[in-house]
Amino acid sequence: MVVLCVDLKSFYASVECILRGLDPYKTNLVVADKERGPGSIVLAVSPHLRSYGVSSRCRIYDLPKDLEIIYAKPRMKKYIEYSSKIYRIYLKYVDKEDIHVYSIDEAFIDLATYLKYYNKPPLEIAAAIVADIFYETGITASCGVGNNMFLAKVALDILAKHQPNHLAYLDQELFKKHIWDIMPLREIWGIGSGIEKRLNRMGVYTLRDLA
Asked: I want to staple 105 with a disulfide (CB 3.0 to 4.6 A). Which of 11, 159, 167, 206 is the partner?
């Protein structure tokens, strides 16, 4: 089994930047309704603003006061349009039966039956899809590749999002090498803060401890 997990970088904020003709990696933009007041939730921040340590799901009053920030009112219809356009890009590479839409900005793709057809390594196919998304929409995507959905998702979350080419691969051995000692445990897909606390009380702080 070979699975891709594709994530669209700071999706809402990236769409808003593109619609304004701006580079998401050079623009301080947040998706939030400023008219609702300083307590309004920030739905997304541009990659450039994220580099200052600003995270999505904060409140407007949490944003840095010393930066000039563009506020974009949420436009879900536009985000759905872009998501649909990117889904059509996936369909250029695989059948719809092999695509699992996880959220508006994330999808799993089962590549297993296509490797012989493309005659390319999985990472090369992933790179082609990521490049196609950027060419067609201007949106940067990251992609994790793994032997199952869990490994693909963890490769995406822990490794790919921090790589210059936005790609990463994990199999069982690489998982042991790169992921077993990741802390805190809640960084791992499927482990929330509640489960993390319960595991910590049992003396389990890493996946190596759990194994």
From this structure: 11
